[in-house]
Amino acid sequence: MLLEKRGISDSGQAEFFLNPDYKRDFHDPFLMRDMEKACVRIFEAIEAKEKTIIYADYDCDGIPGAVILKDLFELLGYKNYEIYIPQRNSEGYGLNLDAIKQFGDARTKLLLTVDLGITAVAEVTQAEVLGMDVIITDHHLPIRSLGEGGLTSFDLPHAFAILNPKIDD
Question: How does strand 81-84 pair with strand 110-114?
C-alpha cells in the first residue's frame, strides 16, 4: 500500500526504492541554488568567530538538522553559536519577530534556519535590518502569487541564501 501511494507499481520499481544505493542515488548538493554561497558565508562566520544562531523547527526534521550543524561546528572548533528552538505553544511555527529582536540585541551576525523560513518574508527582512545575514534551509513550499499572464511565482524572503529543493533559479 505504501509503495502504491508513492506511484510504485511493479517489482523492478519496488526493488529500486527498497534498496537505495549511495553512489547511484546521491546527488551533488552544490547543484542546489545558493549552496556554495551559503557554505562560504558559514565558513566566513566561523573564521571571524561571528555570533551565529541555529534556529530550528521543533519537529523531527528541525531538531536533527540542528544537531548536524552543531556537530559540524564542534568538529571545526567553532563555539560562538546557539541553537534556538521556539516554544510551540507560545511562539508558534516559524521565525518569531520577538526572538529575532533578541538575536539582534545579542549582536548576532548569522541566522541559520533549519526546516523553516521559506515563508518568513517579514521576519527575514527584520533580521537583515538588525544586521544579520539569513541562510534559510527548508523543504516546504514558499508562498505563491499569481503573476502576469496567470503564471505562478514564488514570494521568497530576501535572505542571503535559500537552500530549498522545491525551488530553483
Answer: unpaired
Domains in the chain: boundaries? 29-163
CA atoms within 13 A on the CB side of 3: 11
Buried b (16+ CB within 10 A) or exposed e, 101-131: eebbeeebbbbbbbbbbbbbbebbebbbebe
CA angle 45, 94, 52 (to 5 degrees): 15
User: May I ask the CATH architecture of the domain 29-163?
Assistant: Alpha-Beta Complex (3.90)
Write the pLDDT tens digit of every residue in 15-64: 988 898 988 888 899 999 999 999 999 999 999 999 999 999 999 999 99
Q: What CA–CA distance (Å, rounded) separates 139 from 161? A: 14
Q: What are the beta bridge partners of residue 162?
A: 136
Assign 87 to helix, strand or coil.
coil
* DSSP-based helix, strand, coil % in the chain, nearest 5: 45, 20, 40
Q: Coil, strand or helix: which one is 52?
A: strand
CA-to-CA dists, residue 164 to 42, 46, 82, 97, 137, angstroms = 17, 23, 23, 22, 6
pTM of the model: 0.87
Do residues 156 and 142 make contact, with C-beta atoms less than 8 angstroms apart?
Answer: yes
